[in-house]
């Protein structure tokens, strides 16, 4: 008479509970890593937000907010666009260092033809 070998827990492999715990730990570690990279990528970043603009036949006055690290000199490129999204005027404006993180700026952009909109093309620290 022959008996079939009985599997012991060590021979059966890992339990489903082990795989659930391992998967949960790996997901939590991945989420923490993504959040860490996301936050470190924005530290010290310079951003600009368009607020308003007014149009004249040959110029646009652009108002925008700049967020930057305290004490940082920033230059922003502002451009005016026509109805075909062609650039009809642009200027670079230097924003001096300040103790405030956020500042509101206003700049006049002279244009070759009437512009329909204006936008901040980008800002960078000097």
From TrEMBL:
Transmembrane portions of the chain: 18-39
Pfam families, A to Z: DUF4307
Keyword Transmembrane in record: yes
Alphabetic keyword roster: Membrane, Transmembrane, Transmembrane helix
The protein's name: DUF4307 domain-containing protein
Lineage: Bacteria, Bacillati, Actinomycetota, Actinomycetes, Micrococcales
